[in-house]
Amino acid sequence: MNGARAHPADGDVERPDQSRVPLPKLAVTPEEAAEMLSIGRTQVYELIRSGELDSVAFGRARRILVDALEDLLRRRRGRQIEALTLEHD
After folding, report:
1. Is the CATH number 2.30.30 carried by domain 21-87?
2. Long-range contacts of 18-21 (CB under 8 A, 24+ apart)
3. Cβ–Cβ under 8 Å, residues 66 and 26
């Protein structure tokens, strides 16, 4: 390889001291999103289809922004708190 260095693995950044630091993921696959939310993959696709969960297509690949997952959880949490408040009024 005449002294040339291979590129760092995807998601890693090579630092001058030769160590690699993993970069945080900006987007995940529907399967990864399902695992992160502890729900099924089918339910993730239903959330995407309904418009409740934003996603981005890259050709046939679909990715979900980590921010979109956090937004989904905040909205759901807000609705649950609101429903509980209305029940006690």
Report:
1. no
2. none
3. yes
Q: What is the pLDDT of residue 16?
A: 67
Strands 27-28 and 56-58: unpaired
Q: Go through 18-39 and write b for each residue having 16 or more CB atoms within 10 A of its CB, e for each that does not.
A: eeeeeeeeebbbbebbbeebee
Q: Where are the domains of the chain?
A: 21-87
Give residue-wise pLDDT tens across range 35-61. Answer: 999 999 999 999 999 999 999 999 999
| 34 token code pair | 């399902």
Residue 72 contacts by C-beta under 8 Å, 6 or more apart in sequence?
A: 37, 47, 52, 53
- Token digits of residue 36: 């992160």
Q: For residue 10, is pLDDT > 80? A: no
Whole-number mean pLDDT of the chain? Answer: 86
